[in-house]
Amino acid sequence: MPTLRRTFLTTAAVAALISSAPLAAQTSASSYPSQTITVVVPHAPGGPVDSVARLFADKLKDQLNQSVVVENRAGASSMIGAAHVARANPDGYTLYINASIHSINPLLYKDKIQFDAVKDFTAISLLAQGPLLFLVNPSVKATTAKEFADELKANPGKYSFATGGFGAADHLASAYFLHESGQKSIPIALYKGGAPALQDLIGGSVSAKMDAILTALPLVKADKVRALAVTSAKRSPLLPDVPTMQEAGFKDFEFSTWYGLWAPANLPADVTEALNKAAERIMALPEMQDKLSSLGFVADYRGPKGFAEFIDSEMKRYQTIITAADIKIDQ
User: Fold this and answer.
1) Could you give the CA distance from residue 271 to residue 281 in angstroms, rounded to a whole number?
2) Domain 31-130+256-325 has CATH 3.40.190.150
3) Could you tell me where the DSSP H helices lie in the chain?
4) Which CATH superfamily does the domain covering 134-230 fall into?
């Protein structure tokens, strides 16, 4: 089986993360919530995670009749914000919304993470999923994913990929594609966020990128980038003419990023259930589903048990991709 080896440096911020045990919770659902709730987003404002979080927070305010604020704590592949939540008081007033990178990080950074991405959090609910678009700079001759794979083979060293960060969904999806294409040495440039990566894709400094529909769609419509494929099993209604990776000849290729709601570990069961019920109602709202759909997402509510099982299955799938593509950081 061909492999694609990548070696990366961790950031100093990862080493600075601390894991102190949370204080005992004093909250019960009978009085919850009695003060402002903070939803921590471990990414910069404006991206897909932030967009999902702000949509959800606005509806959570209405469901719980309490103020809800979004706090961005970006850095270290979302681990700075995660570490903050892991050591917060499990009282329901510090919540956490992140994407699938939360479950990818422990597979890559392993003992370099000073918190447990499963045990140090209470999984409350899955919220939504969304595929990625396979984008190329307009100067690329290929018009399909299969043609681009052929171009890579015919022109070694000519093309490169961009990713918004080590271990992010676009990184895994890109490595997955390169592995499935039999490529061993195509560069994957790591950026500190999706925005600068997209700018370099538009400028032609890099050739290709996987990206969320939310941020990619305006660029596709403006002809600044070209979409070769979508990574979901079905075509996106927002881009019905763009084929899936499976239609392009990659029969097993399906990859979506997902978004979930967590709290610190040991959240009282009644508070967990109060938040879970609120999430269930929010994700069933037609206006919420319509808004998510317009941004390239699909509402996908699953409660604590279903969400925990989903996380477990996704981590196993990610490990398969990481092993096959031989994605590693420097030891």
Assistant:
1) 16
2) yes
3) 12-16, 48-64, 79-86, 101-109, 145-154, 169-180, 194-203, 213-221, 269-284, 286-294, 304-325
4) Periplasmic binding protein-like II (3.40.190.10)
Instruction: Mention every residue, 6+ apart, whose C-beta is less than 8 A from residue 67.
Output: 36, 37, 61
Q: Do residues 314 and 233 make contact, with C-beta atoms less than 8 angstroms apart?
A: no
Instruction: Quote the Cα angle for 220-226-229, to 5°.
Output: 100
Q: What is the pTM of this model?
A: 0.84
The string of pLDDT tens digits covering residues 100-144 is 999 999 999 988 898 999 999 999 999 999 999 999 999 999 999
Domain regions of the chain by residue span: 31-130+256-325, 134-230
CB 228, CB 214: distance < 8 Å: no
Q: Is the peptide bond between 33 and the residue preceding it cis, with omega within 30 degrees of 0?
A: yes
